[in-house]
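Colleagues,

For the teaching module next term, I've prepared a clean inverse folding example: a structure given as C-alpha cells, and then the sequence designed for it. I'd like students to try predicting residues themselves before seeing the answer, so please don't circulate the second half yet.
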C-alpha cells in the first residue's frame, strides 16, 4: 500500500527524529474524597484519598496509536485528562516533544501546547454547544488561538475542516441537533483538528455511537492519522475497536498499567491473567488454543484496594506472594507485564 505523505508542517518542525512524542513518567493522580470537614471533626472520620491513577509510564511514537483498555473506573479518563492538562498530576508527569508538559501548561508556553494537544470526548452532544451553529463551534478554536480572525478566511477554513471529516461545507449553518450521532462526532473531530494538533487524546470517541456508524468514524480517524501524521491516545473498553485502531495497547487495572504490548503480541499471546480474561470475553477471539476463563469477579473498591497484586482476588493463578507483594511492570517475554506468575514462568 502506498504510504501517505506526512504533510503537516508542525510535524517536521518540532521533534527530534525517532524520539517518542509523548512520554508519561510515573503519572499519578489522587482525588480527595474525604467526608466534609465538619463530619471529619465531629465524627472523627479520616481524610480519604482515592488513587485514580497510580504510577503510569508509557511512551507513544509520533504518528502511532496507544490504546488504553480496562474496566470502568480503572483510571483511563483520568489519564486522558492529565494528558490534556485538565488535571494536574499528584506525582510524576509527562513530556511532550521533549518538554515537561505540566510545567509548560502553567506558563505562557501552555497556550502553544494546548494548540498541539486536543481531546475528543465520548459524548459529542454534550461537548458541542447546542445553541451555536457548526461554523462557530468548529471556528472557535481558530478565533480563540488567534489563528484566523478574518471572517471569510475563517469560513473557508471551517469548510475545509468539515470536508476533511466527510461533511459538507454547507453543514456549517446548522445546529448540532440537526445531525446524527456519528455526524456530531465528526464535528467534534473537525473542531479538535482546527488548531492543527499533533496529539489527539480520544476518550471512548465511538462508544456512544451505533455499531454501524462506529466503523465510519474510526476509519475517518485512521485516514486523518495517515494524512496528518497524528499521534493518538485512544481509550476504549471495546477490544474489537482497539484491535482496529491501535499500534500498541496498554491494559489498566485499578489505576496501574499491568501490560503494555504491541497490538499483535497482545492479541496473539496475552501474558497477564487479566488481559487473558478480557480477551477471552470476546466471542470472535476464542481460538487461542488456551482454556477459556470468562471475566469473573468484581472490580475491587478503589478506596480499599487489595494488597499485593490488585488483581489477586480475581486471579486463578494467585498465590501467597501475589497477595503480599505488588508486581512491577517489567520487560518479560517481549512485552511489559506486571505479574509474578509470568515472571516465575508458571503460567
Ligand atoms: N473528579 C473526581 N473526583 C473523585 N473521584 C474521581 C474523579 N474522577 C475520577 N474519579 C475516580 O477515579 C477512578 C478512575 O476514574 P476514571 O473516570 O478515570 O475511570 P475510567 O477508566 O475512565 O472509567 P469508565 O470506563 O467508566 O469511563 C474512579 O474510581 C472514579 O470514581
Ligand atoms: S501477580 Fe499473581 S495475582 Fe497478580 S495477575 Fe499475576 S498471578 Fe495473578
Ligand atoms: Mg472514562
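(Answer key — instructors only)
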Amino acid at each position: 500500500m502506498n504510504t501517505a505523505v506526512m504533510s503537516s508542517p508542525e510535524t517536521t518542525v518540532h521533534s527530534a527524529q525517532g524520539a517518542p512524542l509523548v512520554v508519561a513518567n510515573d503519572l499519578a493522580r489522587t482525588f480527595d474524597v474525604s467526608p466534609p470537614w465538619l463530619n471529619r471533626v465531629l465524627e472523627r472520620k479520616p481524610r480519604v484519598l482515592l488513587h485514580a491513577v497510580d504510577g503510569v509510564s508509557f511512551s507513544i511514537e509520533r504518528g502511532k496509536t496507544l490504546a488504553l483498555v480496562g474496566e470502568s473506573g480503572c483510571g483511563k479518563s483520568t489519564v486522558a485528562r492529565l494528558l490534556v492538562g485538565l488535571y494536574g498530576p499528584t506525582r510524576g508527569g509527562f513530556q511532550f516533544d521533549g518538554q515537561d508538559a505540566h510545567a509548560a501548561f502553567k506558563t505562557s508556553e501552555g497556550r502553544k501546547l494546548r494548540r498541539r494537544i486536543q481531546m475528543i470526548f465520548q459524548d459529542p452532544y454534550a461537548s458541542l454547544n447546542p445553541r451555536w451553529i457548526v461554523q462557530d463551534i468548529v471556528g472557535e478554536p481558530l478565533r480563540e488561538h488567534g489563528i484566523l480572525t478574518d471572517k471569510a478566511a475563517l469560513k473557508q477554513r471551517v469548510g475545509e475542516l468539515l470536508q476533511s471529516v466527510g461533511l459538507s461545507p454547507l453543514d456549517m449553518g446548522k445546529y448540532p441537533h440537526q445531525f446524527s450521532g456519528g455526524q456530531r462526532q465528526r464535528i467534534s473531530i473537525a473542531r479538535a483538528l482546527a488548531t492543527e494538533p499533533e496529539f489527539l487524546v480520544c476518550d471512548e470517541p465511538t462508544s456512544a455511537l451505533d455499531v454501524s456508524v462506529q466503523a465510519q468514524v474510526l476509519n475517518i480517524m485512521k485516514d486523518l492519522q495517515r494524512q496528518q501524521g497524528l499521534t493518538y491516545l485512544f481509550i476504549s473498553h471495546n477490544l474489537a475497536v482497539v484491535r482496529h485502531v491501535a499500534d500498541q495497547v496498554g491494559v489498566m487495572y485499578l489505576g496501574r498499567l499491568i501490560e503494555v504490548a504491541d497490538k499483535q503480541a497482545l492479541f496473539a499471546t496475552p501474558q497477564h491473567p487479566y488481559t487473558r480474561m478480557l480477551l477471552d470475553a470476546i466471542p470472535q477471539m476464542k481460538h487461542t488454543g488456551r482454556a477459556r476463563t470468562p471475566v469473573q469477579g468484581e472490580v475491587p473498591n478503589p478506596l480499599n484496594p487489595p494488597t499485593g497484586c490488585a488483581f489477586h482476588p480475581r486471579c486463578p493463578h494467585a498465590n501467597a506472594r501475589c497477595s503480599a507483594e505488588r508486581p512491577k511492570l517489567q520487560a518479560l517475554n517481549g512485552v511489559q507485564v506486571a505479574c509474578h506468575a509470568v515472571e516465575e514462568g508458571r503460567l
